[in-house]
């Protein structure tokens, strides 16, 4: 495997960043994960737009023009011979002597890109079974709209899920409403067939997959309510599912040990998953 690190394509095993990189010391950086399908990035434009937004919110410079960044992403995918999988990119505020204040504005931001293959059959097998989730208090900071690499609450929540035999953790706010998963957006389908997902302005990351799925839902003439839902409502739901670039739509069949519906992935989650790539923009 090959990784791109600040201008060089290096063997993955030798690809390191400096000990005084601000990403390493402060979590002072942002990232994106983009699906690769048939050798092309899915929704590249939207991922790069979100990257620019995250960088602007943190006042970190774009390490290179977007067109050049696209070339680096494609070259990393090519050098790793990824047909189906993921490309990961991370930008930090760069390398400087440890000090909380921003470094000299001339400090170049750091850019790292990796890519790896994922067997689509395996991902489909997971989706075919459905996943279990647990719920945990949402103890994150208020700027979860920024896709920062500072993911310690998410790491702890997902590890707790794993230790409970589940795959994802759903964060729950102080009023008992689900915000989102540790690395996914959260959805339910109510008894009367309405899709429910939390508004993007309401304490979640605006998932690219979430945005595309809203378009898929509209095309399939599904009724959607963008509003918060409680854990109790989710437990009683007909279906539940998560969305992300790595999971597309994947059914949730258990919440804190309680079966959702009949414990099998539901028709809505399946339809959204099957139709996703008709609406996502691949190769742009
Ligand atoms: N919410 C969180 C906290 C995430 O980390 C992610 C993806 O990593 C998502 C939602 C889903 O976003 P996307 O659909 O853009 O992958």
TrEMBL record:
EC number: 2.6.1.42
GO cellular component: cytosol
GO annotation terms (biological process): amino acid biosynthetic process; branched-chain amino acid biosynthetic process
Pathway named in the protein's UniProt entry: Amino-acid biosynthesis; L-leucine biosynthesis; L-leucine from 3-methyl-2-oxobutanoate: step 4/4; Amino-acid biosynthesis; L-valine biosynthesis; L-valine from pyruvate: step 4/4; Amino-acid biosynthesis; L-isoleucine biosynthesis; L-isoleucine from 2-oxobutanoate: step 4/4
InterPro entries: Aminotrans_IV, Aminotransferase-like, BCAT-like_C, BCAT-like_N, Class-IV_PLP-Dep_Aminotrnsfr
Recorded superkingdom: Bacteria
Keyword Nucleotidyltransferase: no
Cofactor: pyridoxal 5'-phosphate
Pfam families in the record: Aminotran_4
Record field: catalytic activity: L-valine + 2-oxoglutarate = 3-methyl-2-oxobutanoate + L-glutamate; L-isoleucine + 2-oxoglutarate = (S)-3-methyl-2-oxopentanoate + L-glutamate; L-leucine + 2-oxoglutarate = 4-methyl-2-oxopentanoate + L-glutamate
Keywords per UniProt: Amino-acid biosynthesis, Branched-chain amino acid biosynthesis, Pyridoxal phosphate
Purpose of the protein: Acts on leucine, isoleucine and valine.
Entries under PANTHER family matching the protein: AMINO-ACID AMINOTRANSFERASE, AMINODEOXYCHORISMATE LYASE
Family to which this protein belongs: Belongs to the class-IV pyridoxal-phosphate-dependent aminotransferase family.
The protein's name in its UniProt record: Probable branched-chain-amino-acid aminotransferase
């Amino acid at each position: 495997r090959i990784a791109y690190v600040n201008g060089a394509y290096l063997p993955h095993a030798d690809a390191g960043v400096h000990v005084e990189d601000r990403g390493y010391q402060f979590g002072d950086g942002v990232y994106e994960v983009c699906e690769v399908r048939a050798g092309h990035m899915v929704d590249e434009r939207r991922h790069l737009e979100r990257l620019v937004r995250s960088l602007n919110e943190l006042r970190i410079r774009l390490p290179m023009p977007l067109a050049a960044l696209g070339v680096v992403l494609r070259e990393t995918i090519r050098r790793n011979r990824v047909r189906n999988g993921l490309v990961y990119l991370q930008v930090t505020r760069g390398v400087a002597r440890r000090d909380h204040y921003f470094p000299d504005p001339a400090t170049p931001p750091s850019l790292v890109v990796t890519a790896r293959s994922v067997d689509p059959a395996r991902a489909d097998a997971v989706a075919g079974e459905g996943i279990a989730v647990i719920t945990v208090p949402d103890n994150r900071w208020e700027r979860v709209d920024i896709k920062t690499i500072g993911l310690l609450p998410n790491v702890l929540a997902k590890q707790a899920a794993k230790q409970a035999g589940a795959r994802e953790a759903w964060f729950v706010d102080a009023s008992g409403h689900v915000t989102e998963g540790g690395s996914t957006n959260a959805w339910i389908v109510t008894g009367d067939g309405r899709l429910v997902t939390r508004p993007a302005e309401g304490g979640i990351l605006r998932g690219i997959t979430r945005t595309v799925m809203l378009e898929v839902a509209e095309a399939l003439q599904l009724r959607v309510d963008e509003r918060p839902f409680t854990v109790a409502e989710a437990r009683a739901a007909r279906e539940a599912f998560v969305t992300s670039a790595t999971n597309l739509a994947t059914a949730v069949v258990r919440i804190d040990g309680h079966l959702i519906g009949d414990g099998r992935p539901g028709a809505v989650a399946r339809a959204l998953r099957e139709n996703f790539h008709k609406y996502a923009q691949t190769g742009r």
